[in-house]
Design goal:
Number of domains: 1
CATH class: Alpha Beta
CATH superfamily: Vaccinia Virus protein VP39
Radius of gyration: 18 Å
Structural class: alpha/beta
Bound molecules: ligand GEK
Shape: globular
Order of helices and strands: HHHEHEHEEHEHHHEE
Distance between the termini: 39 Å
Largest sheet: 7 strands, mixed
Strand content: 15-25%
Strand order of the largest sheet: 3-2-1-4-5-7-6
CATH topology: Rossmann fold
């Protein structure tokens, strides 16, 4: 049976943040207004979001090692961490969910408290570029790397590589830029059609795109693969893609 306290906390208001015309569009921020609508926003904006979360929990079962740490970097409301915790029988593993948005962390802690796990998920407010990590068997970057300044991405991947134990894995999900400009536009239009089917208007889509323009900087697949290689990872490939949203499995 669903826990009523948990259902109340995770019930999302409908995302209408960009539904009225905005004169000057301000940069997108993960603030309280976004927290209130986040589950609805991500579900209606990221194709196959729930499938990716479930896939991450399945990948976790293959890679998690006894007495190790699992890091969920840019955890938002902890969807990946909680999905892993629910599937993972191994109590000796610590799951550490990290975000630098105080509003996200506060709500994530509330959700965590209402789960009653034997082994709670630790929720930290921290900038992931400054985070100390060690003894990791799994690290998750589910649609987070794209929000870091481009110049900080390689350093973070290098540090994740150092923190992972041999045989450990990193999951990186990202919005991708396609190599050929015309093809990129085609895939973007398929994504916009997906958002329209999910109830967003053309104006909402355009205003959100403008708000994200300098905040979410997508890379192409080759750039991701070159970074994984430079960090030292032995194996990497995509395990999932829906339009321009892909998820990579990267193994040490
Ligand atoms: C999910 N992974 O539901 N340090 C810590 N957190 C950061 C940083 C940083 N430097 N930069 C951005 N974030 C989640 C979804 S959302 C993706 C991730 C989206 C955080 C930011 O506060 C936000 O919560 C998250 O990364 C990105 O599986 O909304 O498209």
């Amino acid at each position: 049976m669903q826990n009523p306290k948990l259902t109340a906390i995770t019930m999302s208001a409908k995302d209408t943040i960009f539904s009225d015309p905005q004169g000057k569009i301000k940069e997108f921020e993960f603030d309280q207004q976004v927290v209130e609508v986040f589950p609805d926003m991500i579900e209606r904006s990221v194709p196959s979001y729930k499938t990716i979360i479930q896939g991450i929990s399945e990948i976790a079962q293959k890679f998690v090692q006894l007495d190790s740490n699992i890091y969920d970097l840019g955890c938002s409301l902890g969807a990946a961490s909680f999905a892993i915790r629910q599937k993972l029988q191994e109590p000796s593993c610590q799951i550490i969910a990290v975000d630098n948005s105080p509003a996200m962390v506060e709500r994530c802690r509330l959700i965590q408290a209402s789960y009653n796990f034997d082994m709670p998920v630790e929720v930290l407010e921290s900038d992931i570029t400054q985070l100390e990590m060690n003894n990791a068997s799994l690290v998750v970057l589910n649609f987070t790397l794209q929000f870091l300044p481009v110049t900080k991405r390689q350093t973070l991947l290098n540090r994740i590589y150092q923190a992972l134990n041999p045989g450990g894995a990193l999951v990186v999900s990202e919005k991708l830029q396609m190599d050929q400009p015309e093809f990129d536009e085609l895939i973007i239009s398929l994504h916009h059609d997906f958002k329209k089917r999910n109830g967003y208007s053309d104006m909402e889509i355009a205003q959100k795109r403008a708000a994200l323009e300098n905040v979410l900087i997508p890379d192409n697949q080759q750039t991701h693969f070159e970074r994984f290689k430079q960090a030292g990872f032995a194996q990497y490939d995509s395990w999932f893609q829906h339009y321009n949203f892909a998820s990579f499995l990267v193994v040490k």
